[in-house]
Design brief:
Radius of gyration: 19 Å
Largest sheet: 4 strands, antiparallel
Strand order of the largest sheet: 1-2-4-3
Shape: elongated
Helix content: 40-55%
Strand content: 15-25%
Number of strands: 10
Structural class: alpha+beta
Low-confidence stretches: none
Order of helices and strands: EEHHEEHHEHEEEEEHHHH
């Protein structure tokens, strides 16, 4: 069976597919057969597409699945925001989508989603490809504060990179750090910001 008629951003959503299928259990059966990959409850992607996706592309599909499942638009942060911006990170993008919230409600996480309140009130929120996310400055700082120093520099330098069409000036990065004043990773960021360069042409070069 082809699902192209009701794909949305590469996703097959059970809520939409139900209008086209005689039996909604078709999605579950196709996932069990290996034709579909279940990303989260109610969201699938064709296995052939999933197999050809990079780590970042898979994470973007997870972001869109989480957004589709939410009653209100989500705001992604940390590595999820990095994936949306196209920011390089060390290793693979995680399986869980990180969402910035004012209050975590019943808990800090659910299946496939991890909530954080850290920096909510000082974060600038922008839209990238139809998804709400932290600004590039905040994303670089948020990723860098948890990474080993060399990896932190790779992400920060990319945010400043002269060939990055979304590049920000160093002053903007420093100003966001002062406005936020994170408790976790503060020392690392104070050390990293003066080292940052717009001239590094790759993550490895940083």
């Amino acid at each position: 069976m082809t699902y192209a008629l009701f794909e949305s951003d590469g996703l097959i959503l059970a809520a939409a597919a139900g209008h086209h299928l005689d039996d909604r259990r078709t999605l579950i059966r196709d996932a069990e057969r290996g034709t579909l990959v279940r990303i989260r409850r109610g969201a699938y992607v064709e296995a052939s597409r999933w197999d050809g996706c990079s780590s970042r592309e898979r994470h973007l599909l997870r972001i869109r699945a989480a957004n589709a499942a939410s009653d209100a638009p989500i705001v992604v942060a940390r590595e999820s925001a990095a994936a949306l911006w196209g920011m390089p990170i060390a290793g693979s993008y995680p399986d869980d989508v990180t969402v910035l919230v004012e209050w975590p409600g019943g808990g800090s996480s659910e299946a496939g989603v991890r909530r954080t309140v850290d920096g909510f009130h000082s974060a600038e929120i922008v839209e990238v490809d139809g998804i709400l996310t932290t600004s590039l400055a905040r994303t670089a700082l948020d990723v860098a504060r948890f990474a080993p120093f060399a990896d932190a520099m790779g992400s920060i330098d990319w945010a400043l990179w002269r060939r990055n069409p979304s590049a920000i000036p160093l002053a903007e990065l420093a100003a966001d750090f002062e406005r936020w004043g994170p408790r976790v990773g503060r020392r690392q960021l104070r050390r990293a910001i003066p080292f940052a360069s717009a001239l590094s042409d790759s993550f490895g070069e940083s």
